[in-house]
Design brief:
Elements (H helix, E strand, L loop, with lengths): L6 E5 L3 H13 L3 E6 L2 H11 L3 E4 L8 H11 L4 E6 L4 H10 L3 E4 L7 H9 L7 H13 L16 H11 L4 H8 L3 H15 L4 H16 L1
Parallel strand pairs: 1-2, 1-3, 3-4, 4-5
Helix pairs in contact: 2-3, 4-6, 7-9, 7-10, 8-9, 9-10
Length: 220
């Protein structure tokens, strides 16, 4: 893409950070078509403008950054999502990439590399720092052959529902899941009901079996 071809949406709950990023990109000749301050705005504006790239903070208010990525990947897969993270967390990077992001760039690198990184992303490159790439390699090496813990990108379940289902697959009870995720028992039961409804099953055991099949399919 040439300088004038790249269209970007900037999503960040910090107005000063949002303005600084917007100014830096526009100064570099990249068109910022809109900016958003929360998950709802990010999804609505992305679906409306369908930009080439979405540059988004990982911890947006609302549904959460990972769930926002998941929804955009499902509803506007042509939009490449780059996470511009306030925290430098390889695990967060992994969850973001699994949800459908195309890159992860911690804010600690500053604004200078942003235009170059976004142009590379527009050309189809994955934007991942070296230490995050090393973490991804380590995770792949640890990945069990039965795909336990893998979360398919294309799935009807939310990130939280997968967290609950992962723990159920590990044999935890409802109370143990609640303790692990710091949720009430009633909230966990509600998540389990949603999981079973979305997967079209009538028991937790069946949900575990379906999850395993989805993971095996994702590895093929």
């Amino acid at each position: 893409m040439t300088r004038s071809d790249l269209r970007v949406i900037v999503a960040d709950d910090d107005p000063l950070s949002r303005r600084a990023v917007r100014d830096a990109l526009q100064l570099a000749g990249i068109t910022v078509v809109a900016d958003a301050a929360d998950c709802r705005e990010t999804i609505e504006l992305t679906l409306h403008y369908v930009p080439d790239l979405l540059l988004m903070e990982a911890e947006l208010p609302g549904a959460g950054g990972v769930e926002t990525i998941r929804q955009i990947a499902a509803r506007a897969p042509e939009v490449r999502v780059i996470v511009h993270a306030r925290v430098d967390d390889p695990e967060l990077a992994l969850r973001s990439l699994r949800a459908g992001a195309d890159g992860y760039l911690p804010k600690r690198y500053g604004l200078e590399p942003l235009p170059r990184a976004l142009r590379a992303a527009g050309e189809g490159e994955a934007i991942v720092p070296r230490h995050v790439a090393a973490h991804l390699v380590a995770c792949l090496r640890r990945q069990r052959e039965d795909a336990a813990g893998l979360r398919p990108v294309r799935s009807p379940l939310t990130g939280r529902e997968w967290e609950v289902l992962d723990l159920l697959c590990g044999g935890l009870t409802t109370d143990e899941v609640a303790d692990q995720l710091v949720l009430t028992t009633e909230t966990v039961r509600s998540h389990i009901k949603h999981v079973m409804r979305k997967l079209g099953v009538s028991s937790r055991r069946q949900a575990v079996v379906v999850a395993q099949r989805m993971r095996e399919t994702a590895l093929r």
